[in-house]
Automatic annotation (TrEMBL):
One of its GO terms (biological process) is methylation. This is Methyltransferase domain-containing protein. Residues 25-125 form the Methyltransferase domain. InterPro entries: Methyltranfer_dom (IPR025714), SAM-dependent_MTases_sf (IPR029063). Pfam families: Methyltransf_31 (PF13847). One of its GO terms (molecular function) is methyltransferase activity. Keywords: Methyltransferase, Transferase. CDD domains: AdoMet_MTases.
Amino acid sequence: MTNKDAVELIRNGIQKTEVPQRWADLGCGSGTFTEALATVLPYGSQILAVDRSRQSLKKTMGNAVSVEFLRADFEKTDLNYTNLDGILLANSLHYVQDKEGLIRRLEKYLSPDKRFLVVEYDTLNANSWVPYPIDYIRLKELFMELNYQAVVKLSERKSLFGQGNLYAAAID
């Protein structure tokens, strides 16, 4: 996926403001969506990029956004952050079996205006690459049960890996 493709998926999930923001990208992998997030965040923002595997990410990306990499399992590690403006889970939620438990644990890192940005495959068919899939309907049900006010599908595109469509959703 190109940076342009990733940006198009998530662009409308970022608040339009000039004020720098602090985000976490959990399960950042090689940084495709970290870079996309850095492209759409305001100048001078910060991203904490977390992945279980060592990644070589640039320290500054996109719109002069600083990127700090942390090698950790976001399901098990206390990230010790507070007042994040948002958490991006791009192609990482499908590795989590207890999605409700994870969301409840992650909420403590967020500001009162908590926002999740999720990119996932719109399928319920599990396989070795997507062991615990969550389609858009189930994602919306999950967050509504957790008392979120809005779950909005931002965009979707055909998956390059034969998994149907990828969707992006913003959750407030």
